[in-house]
Structure formats: structure tokens, C-alpha cells
Specification:
The complex is a heterodimer of chains A (247) and B (258). Chain A is mainly alpha-helical. Chain A contains 10 helices and no strands. Helix content of chain A is 82%, strand content 0%. Chain A has one domain: Orthogonal Bundle (MetI-like fold). Chain B is built from 10 helices and no strands. Classes of the chains: A mainly alpha (247), B mainly alpha (258). The interface between A and B is large, with 61 and 62 residues.
């Protein structure tokens, strides 16, 4: 408890500096609402239900897009590592599209599927697929050839080897790719909701900002930021649990 | 024969996608609004290039992204080394970095707009804010991993703090630092384009969002192609710079990955 307090003291100092700067009048309240105002605006948002509805919309979009990306990207990456023709055809496309700034797809997905859930899910799926693909590809390619050969010679079918040898040995790299994808999914979610949406946390931020309700806007911004942070922490914990057999 | 096939296979798939795009668009399965044909998009890029609009937009986007990237590197690398080398600095920044890194910082865009307005300053600030985290964390990791015995021997031979930094710590941490920069550069471009889309104004992202407001889909697709090429070129340039800077390092000998 005390160790955690010492560790996170700098964050408390920053919070106190924020409050003090606004209270003392050094920074105008029009530009930076005080921390206490932001917290009370947050509580009000929670009571009103708007925050819950928009959070649910946002989480649904990230979750659906990310799950699709993991499923398709993982299968694609492993297939690329396992069948040479697939690799020859797919890897130049992956190499070409991987460095593409995925936010460029926001207007197109909106053009195709409108301002609702579909366009966000498609965007997150397209944006998050390649990190997972690359992780699965590198992981599956690096699986120990001796293990593959011995299981083959002991009579395991190709599919069986894929499932029992290649997949487990690729898992750490896949999970690493998924972590990148998770961070990316929040970025894409918020960006697309800021630019083209009628619900969701990003939309709420833009809506409150345009209405000049800055304390509530700060509250939602911090909510999004901490949601992303907690998602990463929870994922890290899950990763350690799933990969416990490696030690 | 087989070798020839493997050699041309990569081009085949790229050309197949281009052909599939053109054919799908022409076949009338989808409306030209949903998917303009590749030739229309290329013609659009060509006319933008001829009118000088492309150069102006491209220049602005690159200027913002690279300025933000440069500032993030100039601040991030020294900060990372300081965090790794000094206890009080580490105490202060460690929780900030570890909480800030996984946050979707793009959510702060409206706040930055509120503070700094709609011009370049706010866009570049947003880019710095986003791109600095991978640089700092990579620099910390690289600096902390420097072999202690080399540091002790250098000190023993009379190296000053500055020598230590210039001759040992920085070169030894350079591979990790470059990895951080390689992560940060695409982030700078992503954030730049989102900022341009949200705040409007010129630039590749701004041009795309204008085209989409006027429901002018060749402009939107031209934007995607242009941005994809810019992203690809930047990543390749960065990788080439890495090979050049790390000529002395053993990783250059390692087989290249995707």
C-alpha cells in the first residue's frame, strides 16, 4: 500500500498542481476546469446515464472489431507461415498495407456503412488485423522444426501438428500482436467517433466540446484514456496467465 | 522455372488486387460512389498533381508529421536517457509514462484544440504528445540494458559522464532507440491525419474529409492511395536509415524479416 503510494505520488502531485493552478487563477477556468469540477461533472454524467450508453456503444464496437481482427488475422498469419503459395501471394500485400496510416480509412468506412456501428467495426477490423497477422506469421514461422518433424514422423496429421505444435509455439507472438491491436483499436475507435459518429465516447467528447461544457468534456476524455489504460492492464494480466506454461 | 514463378509472385498479387478493384468497379456490382474504378482514382491523383494541389497537401501533412516527430525525438531521447540514469527523474516520470503509454491520447484532441486553436501548433502538439511515448519507453529500455561492466571499465579508464554518454550509452542504446522511432513515425502520421480530418484545413487528411463531405468518392479513394504511399515510403526510409546507422551492429547480418 505504502509502496504503491510512493510509486504513484507523481500522479497525485500532478493532480494537485492542476487543482491549485485553476483555484489560484493562474489558469483561467474557461480553459481548464478544476479537477473537482471535472469529477463532479463525471458523477453527474454517470447518474444521467448518457455516459453508460455511449460507453456501451464504444465498447461494443471495439470488442466486435477486435474479435474479428484476431480471428481473421490469426488464421491468415498462420496460413501464411504454413503454406508457401499463400505466403508468396499475401506477404507483398501485407508489407504494402502494414505501414499505411489506418486513420485514412475513416472517410471510406463512413462512405460505405454510414455513421453507425458498422463503419467503426469495419475500421477497427481492418486496422487491427495486420498486427495480429504479422505476430501469428512470425510466431508460427519460428516454431521449432525439430518438434514439427518429430510429431510428423510419429504420425500426426498436418492439421494435428498445426493445432498441437505450431499454434502453441506461436501463441506468445500472437498475443503480443493482439496487444498492439488492442491499443490501436482504441485509437481508431476514438478517432472515428470524433470525426463521423452519432454515438459513442468520442462523439460525446466532440458534442460536449462544441457545446462548451468543458468540465464534462474533460471527464469523458479522462474516462476514455483510463478505459484504454485498464484494457491494456487487464490484457497484460490475461497474457501472463495464458502463457504461464512457458516458464 | 519454379524460381521465376516465386520471383514474380509478389507482383502478381499486387496486380491481381489492382485488376480485381478495376473489374469490380466496372462490372456495376457496386455503384461508382461506393467504389470508383482504379483508373478514375489514378486520373484524379494525376490531375491533383498537375494542379499543384497534391504537392501543397502532401507538403503540409509531411511538414506537420515530421515536425512533430522531430520534436518528439529531440525531447523523448534525452528524457528517456535521463529517466534510465537518474533516480529522482525516474521516480517522477515512471508512473506518468506507464499510465500514459497505453492511453488513447487522441481523445485529448478536442482539449488541445481548445487550448491552441485550429492551426499547425495544435496539430503538431498533438503529434508530439502521441509520438513521444514509444520513443521514451524504447530509450529507457535501451539505456537500462547497457552492459554495466563496460560502463565500469570506461569509468575506471577515466571517462567523464559526457564521454560515457557519447561513446557508450548512446551507441549501445541506439538499436532500441531506433526501434522506438520506427514505432513513433507511423503514429505521427496517423495522428496528423486524424487531426487534419477533425480540425479541417489543408493537408492530405483535410482534403479527404472535404471530399467526403461533398460525397466525392474519387477524392476519398485518391486520398487513401496517396496516404498509403506516403506511409510506405516513410517506413522504408526509416528502415534504410536504420541499416545505415547500425552498419557496425551484428543485427545487420541477421536475415531480414517482413
Amino acid at each position: 500500500m505504502k509502496a504503491a503510494l510512493v510509486r504513484y505520488a507523481p500522479l497525485l502531485i500532478l493532480a494537485a498542481a492542476w487543482e491549485a493552478a485553476v483555484r489560484s487563477g493562474v489558469v483561467s477556468e474557461l480553459v481548464l476546469p478544476s479537477l473537482t469540477d471535472v469529477v463532479s461533472a463525471w458523477v453527474k454524467l454517470l447518474r444521467g446515464g448518457d455516459l453508460w450508453l455511449n460507453t456501451a456503444a464504444s465498447l461494443y464496437r471495439t470488442g466486435a472489431g477486435l474479435l474479428l481482427a484476431i480471428a481473421v488475422g490469426g488464421v491468415l498469419g498462420i496460413t501464411m507461415a504454413w503454406w508457401r503459395p499463400v505466403n508468396a501471394l499475401a506477404s507483398p500485400l501485407v508489407e504494402m498495407l502494414y505501414p499505411m496510416p489506418k486513420s485514412a480509412l475513416i472517410p471510406v468506412t463512413a462512405l460505405w456503412l454510414g455513421f453507425g456501428d458498422g463503419s467503426k467495426i469495419l475500421l477497427i477490423f481492418l486496422g487491427c488485423m495486420l498486427p495480429v497477422t504479422l505476430g501469428a506469421f512470425n510466431g508460427a514461422r519460428a516454431s521449432d522444426q525439430a518438434l514439427v518433424w518429430s510429431s510428423r514422423s510419429m504420425g500426426a496429421s498436418r492439421l494435428r501438428v498445426l493445432w498441437d505444435v505450431v499454434l502453441p509455439s506461436a501463441l506468445p507472438e500472437i498475443m503480443n500482436g493482439v496487444r498492439t491491436a488492442l491499443a490501436l483499436s482504441f485509437v481508431l475507435l476514438v478517432s472515428s467517433e470524433l470525426i463521423a459518429a452519432r454515438s459513442g465516447l468520442g462523439y460525446l467528447i466532440g458534442f460536449l466540446g462544441e457545446g462548451g461544457v468543458y468540465d464534462a468534456m474533460f471527464a469523458v476524455v479522462l474516462t476514455v484514456a483510463f478505459l484504454g489504460f485498464f484494457a491494456d492492464r487487464v490484457y497484460q494480466r490475461l497474457e501472463r496467465r495464458v502463457l504461464r506454461w512457458r516458464e | 522455372m519454379a524460381r521465376v514463378i516465386w520471383r514474380i509472385a509478389p507482383w502478381l498479387s499486387v496486380m491481381a488486387v489492382a485488376a480485381a478493384w478495376e473489374l469490380t468497379a466496372r462490372s456495376g456490382v457496386v455503384t461508382p460512389f461506393m467504389l470508383p474504378s482504379l483508373s478514375v482514382v489514378v486520373a484524379r491523383i494525376w490531375s491533383d498533381a498537375a494542379s499543384g494541389e497534391l504537392v501543397a497537401n502532401l507538403g503540409l501533412t509531411l511538414y506537420r508529421a515530421l515536425a512533430g516527430f522531430a520534436i518528439a525525438s529531440a525531447v523523448g531521447i534525452p528524457l528517456g536517457i535521463l529517466i534510465a540514469r537518474s533516480r529522482p527523474v525516474r521516480w517522477f516520470f515512471d508512473p506518468i509514462v506507464s499510465v500514459g503509454f497505453p492511453m488513447p491520447k487522441i481523445a485529448f484532441l478536442p482539449i488541445v484544440t481548445l487550448w491552441l486553436g485550429f492551426h499547425d501548433v495544435s496539430k503538431i502538439t498533438m503529434i508530439v504528445f502521441d509520438a513521444i511515448f514509444p520513443i521514451v519507453t524504447a530509450t529507457i529500455a535501451g539505456t537500462a540494458a547497457v552492459d554495466r561492466e563496460i560502463l565500469w571499465s570506461a569509468r575506471n579508464l577515466g571517462a567523464s559522464d559526457r564521454d560515457l554518454l557519447r561513446e557508450i550509452i548512446f551507441p549501445a542504446a541506439l538499436p532500441e532507440i531506433l526501434t522506438g522511432l520506427q514505432v513513433a513515425l507511423p503514429i505521427a502520421l496517423i495522428v496528423c491525419i486524424v487531426a487534419e480530418m477533425k480540425m479541417g484545413g489543408v493537408g492530405l487528411g483535410g482534403a479527404m474529409i472535404t471530399a467526403s463531405r461533398f460525397a466525392e468518392s474519387p477524392g476519398v479513394f485518391a486520398g487513401i492511395v496517396e496516404i498509403a504511399i506516403v506511409g510506405y515510403v516513410l517506413v522504408k526510409v526509416m528502415a534504410a536509415a536504420r541499416r545505415r546507422l547500425l552498419l557496425w551492429h551484428q543485427e545487420v547480418l541477421a536475415p531480414a524479416t517482413v
